[in-house]
Amino acid sequence: METLQSPSIDPGQFRKFASELKFVIGRPLAEEVRSWARRNMLADPHGRGADQDAYSITTLYLDTAEFDVLARTGSFGRGKYRVRRYGSSDVIFLERKMKSRGLVCKKRSQIEMGEISKLAQPEAKRGWAGYWFHRRILARGLRPVCQIAYARTARMGMTESGPIRLTLDDAVRAVPVQGFAFEARRPTVSLSEDRIVLELKYRGEVPALFQRFMDDFSLNPRNSSKYRSAGKALNLGRFGSLVETEPAGFTAGGAPCVTF
Predict the structure, then answer these.
(1) Closest among 132, 90, 125 to 107, alpha carbons compared
(2) Is the pLDDT at 208 greater than 90, yes or no?
(3) What digits encode the pLDDT tens for the residues 45-78?
(4) Average pLDDT over residues 210-238
């Protein structure tokens, strides 16, 4: 059986865009949502724990010296480049998350942990799995500025339009960084307190299952960005005071507000 992928992952040459709805909810409601998801959706194929749907994520977020990604300057506002690790794995992922016309798409490559130092080299080497990523971050002047870690619960499903995914991110914390290395010892700043980030991802129209879910729990999407929250909490660059979380709601056209 084919392993289910996130709807926003591009598995081949044809770019796959997905819609992404975000919610920020309290802990009691998050526990109800978690129970609902475990009754109605499948466990993430890479999950662990008693319900095979939990794992930790640690991500290095990249930005320019002027924090153009954080400030959403020009084309920097349409994409994020990041290095992601799941749990204590020796495998890491180089990822670009793009936004186009209110939809999101991820391109990612897998490398070994020992190869991460290659990203600090002044020239990208052809023939390496991370070549495309390294070449792009050099061209855009990107380097690691902060690390964000959190605990995730993930459930999956399949519809006629493709895979669907529900995630709950808890215990979100951040620390500033300056190089291509994961930081495990320095004190971190909490970004979530008792708030949990709920995300729904899907392709095409809102699936009936998710529509019923939102109606039953009276959920209203809101824009939420872990990186922008970290920018505010860590006062990254001169834009630290400009990264307030955007208000909840929808665009004037009725399409969900999408952030990443």
Answers:
(1) 132
(2) yes
(3) 989 999 999 999 999 999 999 999 999 999 998 8
(4) 92
Provide the pLDDT for residue 230.
95
pLDDT tens column, 21-32: 999 999 999 999
Domain ranges of the chain: 19-242
Instruction: Tell me the per-residue pLDDT of 110-142, one tens digit each, with 9 for 90 and over.
Output: 999 999 999 999 999 999 999 999 999 999 999
**Residue by residue, what is the 3-state secondary structure of the chain?**
CCCCCCCCECCCCCCCCEEEEEEEEEHHHHHHHHHHHHHHCEECCCCECCCCCEEEEEEEEEECCCCHHHHCCHHHHHEEEEEEEECCCCEEEEEEEEEECCEEEEEEEEEEHHHHHHHHCCCCCCCCCCHHHHHHHHHHCCEEEEEEEEEEEEEEEEECCEEEEEEEEEEEEEEECCCCCCCCCCCCEECCCCEEEEEEEECCCCCHHHHHHHHHCCCCCECCCHHHHHHHHHCCHHHHHHCCCCCECECCCCCECCCC
Give the predicted TM-score (pTM) of the model.
Answer: 0.85
- At 247, phi and psi to the nearest 5? -70, 160
CA distance 82 to 60: 5
33 contact partners, CB below 8 Å, separation of at least 6: 25, 166, 168, 198, 217
CATH topology for 19-242? mRNA Triphosphatase Cet1; Chain A (3.20.100)
